[in-house]
Amino acid sequence: MCKSDALHDEIGNNHIGTSDYTPLKANAFDISDDEKIELIKKDVENILNTLGMDLTDDSLKGTPNRVAKMFVKEIFGGLNPAKKPSSSTFDNKYKYGEMLVEKNIVVYSTCEHHLLPIVGRAHVAYISNGKVVGLSKMNRIVDYYAKRPQVQERLTIQIVEELKRVLNTQDVACVIDAKHLCVNSRGIRDIESSTVTAEYSGAFKNENTRKEFLNYIQLETKF
Ligand SMILES: [Zn+2]
After folding, report:
1. How much is the pLDDT for 126?
2. 116 in Cβ contact with 181 (< 8 Å)
3. I need a labelling partner for 80 at 20 to 30 A (CA). Which of 42, 94, 143, 212 fits?
4. What is each CA distance from 42 to 62, 64, 70, in whole angstroms?
5. Which residues belong to any copy of the GTP cyclohydrolase I domain (predicted)?
6. From the CA of 181, how far away is ligand 1's center (Å)?
């Protein structure tokens, strides 16, 4: 293994992200989704062939196309800025000045170091600066950034940065608690452990505000 391969292996094995931004090439969207699906289909065929699988078997015939479509349209669909949720906001007409918390947002993402699932919950909060967003907007923002090859720390920061931009406020927080299947199902195979990341901005850097947020997300919601 060459020196730079060893370094990259070390970074991946330790789940270290190298930037707040998803490392995309400048030409990432020069070809269409359909062209990407055709190329990835051949790549998946190659992987299965190399592993020795018989792709003429009825059960495997559709797999390369299915995986390629899933990569481009579903689990990595959030790479495409065209799919970013609209940033429409509303006036805070009730003059509600306390924090608003959207908790237990389901997170389905993919670890960019192993291409295995990250599954968990995100809890997002903001304090309105005159603007509010529809409640489901927070779920959509989480889902958009989750649908990329990800590092959990980066996902947490990207959600906060996007909400800061949309709501025109610094007062935003996000906590994510998630299981990484690369840790749970392979390697150390620890099925119990989960990873918690948090990003606090503006008023949430204040200890009392942060505690209030953390208390809310511990509430058990009963119907
Ligand atoms: Zn991983």
Report:
1. 97
2. yes
3. 42
4. 12, 7, 14
5. 40-217
6. 7
Low-confidence spans in the chain with pLDDT less than 50: none
Look at residue 94 in the predicted model and tell me its pLDDT: 79
Token representation of residue 176: 């994510």
Give the pLDDT confidence score for residue 62 in this predicted structure: 97
Structure-token match 């208390």, residue found:
215
Q: Which two tokens stand for residue 72?
A: 């481009």
pLDDT the model gives residue 206? 97
Q: What separation in Å is there between the alpha carbon of 151 and the centre of ligand 1?
A: 8
Give the chain's domains with CATH numbers.
Answer: 30-75 (1.10.286.10), 89-217 (3.30.1130.10)
Q: Is 15 a catalytic residue?
A: no
Answer yes or no: 182 catalytic.
yes
Active site residue 161: no
In the numeric block, the tokens 């190399």 are attached to: 50
| Structure confidence at residue 176 (pLDDT) | 98
Ion ligand 1 — residues with CB < 5 Å: 111, 113-114, 182
